[in-house]
TrEMBL record:
<dbReference type="InterPro" id="IPR016181">
    <property type="entry name" value="Acyl_CoA_acyltransferase"/>
</dbReference>
<protein>
    <submittedName>
        <fullName>GNAT family N-acetyltransferase</fullName>
        <ecNumber>2.3.1.-</ecNumber>
    </submittedName>
</protein>
<feature type="domain" description="N-acetyltransferase">
    <location>
        <begin position="1"/>
        <end position="151"/>
    </location>
</feature>
<keyword id="KW-0808">Transferase</keyword>
<dbReference type="GO" id="GO:0016747">
    <property type="term" value="F:acyltransferase activity, transferring groups other than amino-acyl groups"/>
</dbReference>
<dbReference type="InterPro" id="IPR000182">
    <property type="entry name" value="GNAT_dom"/>
</dbReference>
<keyword id="KW-0012">Acyltransferase</keyword>
<dbReference type="Pfam" id="PF13508">
    <property type="entry name" value="Acetyltransf_7"/>
</dbReference>
Length: 151
């Protein structure tokens, strides 16, 4: 079942976010659970949206996103912060249901476009196929570089 997340879900969502962080390209970057919890609370309170995926009453995944005006026009752009699913549940339909929930939310909010990224380094090709299956178009890669501060 996919539903809007509540504040009661935040500890479990942070736990799942920690799992994602620790197994992704972000693993070398610090992770602050309290900051994540505050941010998810702000999204739930209206800064954006958080969906929770439940299986047998247990939250096994989530989706965090938001909407903003394009910097160059008044058109609304919906975007993801994170799609995270417990590793043992990643091969089912949970991701599809979470993304569809976000698409429906974005449409209801008046978004003209939805942008979804893949920055975790986890199953990049499979995730790209999933996004294409759901109607997203590939528009180009994302590059990253760690900044050396000479320490």
């Amino acid at each position: 079942m996919i539903r809007a997340a509540t504040h009661a879900d935040i500890p479990r969502l942070v736990e799942l976010g920690t799992l994602l962080h620790d197994t992704s390209t972000y693993a070398a970057t610090s992770f602050k659970p309290d900051k994540v919890a505050r941010f998810l609370g702000q999204l739930i309170d209206g800064l954006g949206v958080v969906f929770a995926a439940e299986v047998d009453g247990v939250v096994v995944g989530g989706f965090a996103g938001a909407i903003t005006e394009q910097w160059f026009s008044d058109d609304l752009l919906a975007y993801d912060y994170s799609l995270f699913i417990e590793p043992g549940k990643r091969q089912g339909a949970i991701a599809i249901k979470l993304i569809l929930a976000f698409q429906n939310w974005a449409k209801a909010k008046g978004a003209k476009h939805i942008h979804m990224g893949i920055t975790t380094g986890i199953n990049t090709e499979g995730t790209a196929r999933l996004y294409k299956y759901l109607g997203f178009q590939y528009v180009g890669p994302l590059f990253t570089m760690e900044v050396d501060h000479g320490r």
